[in-house]
Amino acid sequence: MEFFQIQAMEPIPRQSVPTGDDWFYQIKWDGIRILTFFDGNSIKLRTKKGFKRTTEYPELNELTKEFGNTTWLLDGEIIVANQTDKSDHPKFITTNESCEEVGANFFHVLKRDRTKNPTQKLLKTFPVRYKVFDLLMIDNQWLVNEPFIKRRELLNKHFNNNKFLQIIRSYSDGLSLFNITSQQNHEGIVAKKSNSIYHPGKKHSEWFKIKHLKYLQAYLGGVIVKENQIKSLLLGQKSDLADYKLNYIGRASTGLTQKELNMLKDFAFKNRVSNSPFGNLSKVDLELADSKESVVFLSPQLKLQVKYTNWTPGGNLRHPVINGFII
Predict the structure, then answer these.
(1) I need a labelling partner for 42 at 20 to 30 A (CA). Which of 109, 243, 274, 287 fits?
(2) Residue 89 — pLDDT band, cuts 50, 70, 90?
(3) Domains and CATH numbers, the chain
């Protein structure tokens, strides 16, 4: 098996925390998933989708100085470190960290992820830390068919925390960890079966991610249509502007059934308006994916309940999902 053939194992979304003695629980860090391979000479980085990232994170070359005596393949999450992040043990994470600060860290690492050969200024402004949770190969021996608990033992045996690498801790009490991470504005937790082998993709039932979700009410201000089908809903909240325009807060593409989407399409085509109901959005701002997409604006009549994970620095919802219509 070659490094480039490895497909990352991905946790499956789940609403509740699975419980039992055969589960481990870890903090879910909001960063960029990265596989890191050292062949004995140089480091190579890939995203979970296989895209090269070696030049984006030159700091990880420092790992060869401490762990360069053999070959290895690590799996983890790259985050932008901050002053409050001294450990991944919840008691060390201060509770004065706001949702905006946690969300901003993701966009800082996203800036790093989109910058090849970053300058020294960028390295200093957005320093990264590699949160490692799995070891897939050591000394040319593949471990993907070994149980998770053994891979964890080998990870802790061959690696230790330093300036750039930090091994994510595992906990036995998932419900307590979920509650603590909610209080401290983490994205959520990941539950892993202790005997799970490393499955490619999501074809398994052994790793789950349970996110902390927030809810709000929003108005439907329009839809994006492609090939006569609704692709996403444009969401807004009532603003304080004199013209009663909506504040645009993002678009949602999931949550409704096909039947509901068909009914909404009929409503939208019958009730379309020529002008945008958003005070802070124009057709130019929408950045449509291709020429086949079009916008149907609506007056703010329909109210929706929306679940989401956080806010972007620009004031849009992260990962919005339509939870239902409010009658």
Answers:
(1) 109
(2) low
(3) 3-211 (3.30.470.30), 214-326 (2.40.50.140)
Strands 165-167 and 128-138: parallel
Nearest alpha-carbon partner for 181 in 106, 260, 173, 250: 173
User: Token pair of 98, please?
Assistant: 């706001």
**Residue 302 phi, psi (nearest 5):** -85, 130
Whole-angstrom Cα distance, residue 153 to residue 234?
Answer: 47
Closest CA to 8 of 188, 204, 187: 204
**C-alpha to C-alpha distance for 187 and 33, rounded to whole angstroms:** 14
Give the span between the Cα atoms of 128 and 135, in whole angstroms.
20
Token duo for residue 219: 């108005």
pLDDT of 99 higher than 50: no
Contacts 24+ apart (CB under 8 A), 87-96: 87/166, 88/27, 88/29, 88/131, 88/166, 88/168, 88/169, 89/169, 90/27, 90/177, 90/180, 90/181, 90/184, 93/184, 93/186, 94/184, 95/183, 95/184
For the CA atoms of the chain, what is the radius of gyration? 22
Question: Which residue type is seen at 314?
Answer: G
How many Å apart are CA 106 and CA 125, to the nearest integer?
14
C-alpha to C-alpha distance for 133 and 10, rounded to whole angstroms: 12
- Count other Cβ atoms within 10 Å, centred on residue 128: 24
Statement: residue 105 has pLDDT above 90: no
Q: How many CA atoms lie within 13 A of 252 on its CB side?
A: 25
CA distance 120 to 118: 7
Q: Is the pTM of this model over 0.85?
A: no
N- to C-terminal Cα separation, the chain: 55
